[in-house]
Design brief:
It is elongated and about 65 Å long. Helix 8 packs across helix 9 and helix 10 packs across helix 12. It contains 12 helices and 12 strands. It starts with a helix and ends in a 6-residue tail after the last helix. The protein is of the alpha/beta class. The strands form 2 sheets. The protein has a 6-stranded parallel beta sheet, with helices on both faces. The structure holds beta-D-fucofuranose.
Length: about 325
């Protein structure tokens, strides 16, 4: 503003004229709403984001990543926590449609049942980006892209490590499995990938498999049941760190030593999980990165600008043994 005062009269007049034109232009854009997303074309992108919940360390890190990346990218974020309920996500998405946000992004709690609401978004001209988890809709035109991990691969990596560890086992190896939330893509896919990999050795058998809902409390409670019902458990495969961490309590309470009496394999590699692995309580983790925020904001900008984006963008990931966890822990971001 200080600068304005030093301007000479003709410049001032030009500046006033320019700002009048600018405001007029914005208003005109605002009025000519074609249903193509935002009502105000001030260059600012508004994103409506429906998050699954706050069920795990992974989810907390994912939420932080998205919020920080939105701020950094200058994107206005409307954020809703669905508390692991699909009906809440559908409600949030409908709200975003009504508010005419520029882009809707969400991480679908379960795979099925999205077609109707996705069609509503499409009809309103609002592009949808799937992040973290995908949907099973046959009509791929209902969303622009899916950014996230290959969950089948994660399950496979977990299973392959076990096959290698147990290659000299002469008798049965009893495995219990803590599944993620019922119907969720990472639960379905990790189960599938793991089963495919362990099929290589008929000694490896999943003797019990149940959902622990991706939470510590769920993991603890279901592991207690597993331990009561099965006198011989050699391996626990948990679909995420949090359920594995909950299970540790149940295993210790049952007088067994986690990581020794029972081999523990998990997925995610959040800090608490990595600490358990470094301490030898877990034995192996397949990584799943929650740091999707920056890529998501990038995609939102491209989609808003009408640019083509790849239909599928896969997160880069690795695996960790105890030694590798010890090395990686000091620099772990989540
Ligand atoms: O593995 C789990 C979270 O969808 C990849 O959800 C995500 C999973 C993650 O609750 O910890």
């Amino acid at each position: 503003m200080g600068k304005m005062r030093t301007q000479s009269a003709p410049w001032r007049a030009a500046a006033v004229l320019a700002s009048v034109l600018l405001v007029g232009g914005v208003a005109a854009c605002g009025n000519s709403d074609t249903g193509g997303g935002g009502t105000k074309d001030d260059g600012k992108i508004t994103m409506g984001f429906s998050q699954v919940g706050a069920e795990s360390g992974w989810r907390t890190a994912n939420t932080i990543s998205i919020k920080e990346a939105a701020t950094a990218a200058g994107i206005e974020l409307k954020f809703d926590d669905a508390q692991q309920k699909q009906e809440n996500q559908i409600k949030a998405i409908r709200n975003y449609i009504q508010q005419k946000v520029d882009v809707i992004a969400f991480s679908p709690v379960v795979e099925s049942g999205w077609d109707t609401v996705l069609k509503e978004a499409k009809d309103a001209g609002i592009p949808v980006i799937l992040t973290d988890r995908s949907v099973d809709s046959a009509d791929k035109s209902l969303y622009k892209t899916f950014l996230g991990s290959d969950f089948v691969k994660e399950g496979k990596l977990a299973g392959e490590w076990l096959v290698e560890q147990k290659k000299t086992a002469s008798g049965p190896v009893n495995i219990v499995e803590l599944q993620g939330s019922t119907g969720a893509a990472p639960a379905n896919d990790r189960k599938k990938g793991f089963a495919e990999a362990i099929a290589a050795n008929p000694n490896l058998k999943v003797i019990a498999s149940q959902t622990g809902d991706f939470t510590r409390a769920g993991g603890k409670q279901v592991m207690e049941q597993f331990l009561k019902a099965n006198p011989k458990i050699d391996v626990l495969f948990a679909h995420n760190d949090d359920m594995g961490l909950g299970a540790l309590e149940a295993i210790t309470a049952a007088g067994k030593v986690p990581g020794k009496d029972i081999t523990i394999i998990t997925i995610d590699a959040v800090k608490d999980g990595m600490q358990a692995l470094a301490d030898g309580k877990f034995n192996f983790i397949a990584e799943c990165s929650p740091l999707l925020g920056p890529q998501l904001m990038d995609l939102a900008k491209k989609v808003k600008a009408g640019e083509e984006v790849p239909a599928r963008i896969e997160t880069e990931e690795t695996t960790f043994t105890t030694e590798q966890a010890k090395e990686a822990l000091p620099n772990r971001k989540y």
